[in-house]
Amino acid sequence: MGSVYIRELIRKYNNEEASAAERLIVETWYDNLNSTGVFNDENANSQKMEQMEARLLARIDKGPIVRRIPFSYSKLIAFAAAIIVLISISVLFLHNYSMNSVNVAKKNVIVPGANKAFLVLGNGKRIDLDSTSTGLIAKSAGVAINVGATGKIVYNGRANVVEMNSLSTPKGGMYQVVLPDGSTVMLNSSSVLTFPNLFKGDSRSVKLSGEGYFEVAENKDQPFYVEANGVNIRVYGTGFNVMAYPEEQFVKTTLVHGSVRVGNNSVMSMLLPGQQALMDAKEKKIQIRRPSLEEVLAWKNWEFRFEGADITAILRQISRWYDVDVIYKGAVSDHRFYGVIPKKSNANDLFEILEETRQVHFEIQGRKVIVINGPREEKNNQ
């Protein structure tokens, strides 16, 4: 890739003539070189352009760029672009194909998920919730249940009868609840949290299917337990994430701060902050590793973050958030992806960015997404 190509991309970006793919490239360069001082002002002079060109060429020679996005640049916000960084520089720069727009069909725009869920009370009453829900939503067993201005369910008062409640998020939903003891739980899409309206006795126990982030109120006299797909988590006043979707191989418990003990009747392990336990309940084994906390917690920060994810892992997340069915046609790409994409992007935009890799392309039929290995065949205009 020569200097003429780099200069032309920068010129088109500054003049707001760049395509989505070209903006992706320049914004990636911008983020990685911002600390050098090259981008101190938007109207770079010729000397700075030369510096930028030299640095870009040097980075190309060194190998892949890893994306770090602060989400604070005005151009990034203005474009509202879904961003993904590719594992290969040759792919990132789109060196072997034209930069024309990718032809993902836009007849069916697939919009992102939002704050929505439904709460089922002990008496069987179902309450649908969305981003507009506020104020008192129910009274049950002496407890007033409210949704605050920040969109959290809050239990006020002490129940006179212990009843089990459940909060469920559908595909394309997220929601947050403050439990009767003051602990908070944020649920990701396709998740169910079952809990009592009063924690009574010598322990506090809840059950999770799906994914949730917990901030547990400390109470040494009443320890907190989470049961997730056969895995038991003993909590000691802490912040942690649990991913326990039935379709995933492992139950993943990631400790952010505090301490937890993870296991079952056969094996147990204590986690330190920053550690993750991968538990296969069938094999009764625990693996301990240190993942990227940014990647683990991206969902609750309204992001997709991929740090070496394969297409199947990416599309499982996409399926849950956009409420689409994913079907694979033929072989599945083993390409690894790196990047960050705002969860508020339409799925069509996300698919376009993924197609830019030329590793995979998509056919959208209503809410069915067909995944095909390799690049889309370009049609010749006769």
Automatic annotation (TrEMBL):
Residue ranges of domain FecR protein in the record: 167-261
Record-annotated membrane-spanning stretches: 76-97
Superkingdom of source: Bacteria
Residues of the Protein FecR C-terminal domain: 304-371
Xref: Pfam families: FecR, FecR_C
Gene Ontology MF, one: sigma factor antagonist activity
Keywords: Membrane, Transmembrane, Transmembrane helix
Name of the protein this chain belongs to: DUF4974 domain-containing protein
Source lineage: Bacteria, Pseudomonadati, Bacteroidota, Sphingobacteriia, Sphingobacteriales
